[in-house]
Structure formats: C-alpha cells, structure tokens
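tool=predict chain=A
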Amino acid sequence: MISLTDSQKIGMGLTGFGVFFLIFGMMLFFDKALLAIGNILFVAGLSFVIGLERTFRFFFQRHKAKATSFFLGGVFVVLIGWPIIGVLLEIYGFFLLFRGFFPVAVGFIRRIPALGSLLSLPGIRTLVDEIGESNNMREMWLNSEVTI
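tool=predict ok
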C-alpha cells in the first residue's frame, strides 16, 4: 500500500472535490460558479499532492507551454464568466498536458477484468488503440526492424 503524507491526503480530497464540481458544473449546463470552484480545487489539490515546486515545474516546461497556456487560459476564461469556451480550452490543454500519461492509463485499464473486455469491443478498440499509443512509441515501432 502506498503511504501518503497528510498534505497528499488533503490534496487527494481537494482534487476529488474539484473533479466532482467540474463534472457537476457541466451537468448543470455549465454553471459558472461550480466550474470556477472545481478549477480552483483541482489546481490546489494537484499542488498539494505533488508539491508546489513540482507543480510549477510540470506546468511551466518549455515543451508544455502551449498546453499550459490553453489549460490555465481556460481556467481564467471560466473565472471571468465564459464557461463553455473556458471548458473547451481546458479540455484541449488537459489532453495536451497529460498525453504522455494516456498510454500508461490505457494499459492499466486494459488489465482490469470488466473494463479490459469493454475496451476490446470492435468500435471502442480502435479508438482506445489510438489514444493508448503515444507518437514516440508509434515512431519507434515503425522504425524498428522486426525479425521472426
């Protein structure tokens, strides 16, 4: 079992509540207040879980500048009162920021018995295969010589 510090436990709670408020705000037709609370809680929770310095280093890497600007710009747009545009910007930035994590997450989900069989269905499988492969892995596979 993974041991968490008290601040990491608080961060997990804040992140969980942030995701809840974001989903709930979208379900209630993009309620500005709920989305704003969700954004603040999510970013604060992330800071508690991985620490302020690592959060800053994660968001402000040179190769993630575009992703960070879309994500944090979306948070700002939600806070000033345009929730639909802000959420779209956030979603795009989120996918750009965490695209390196998607292959790991898909591989983990495929090992779960019920979800793995769901991801193996014909229509879903091609979509998940595209999401689950990163560009670097695809390029390595295409450039490698396979001998049988």
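The two ends are 41 Å apart (CA to CA). Residues 137-142, 144-148 have pLDDT under 50 and may be disordered.
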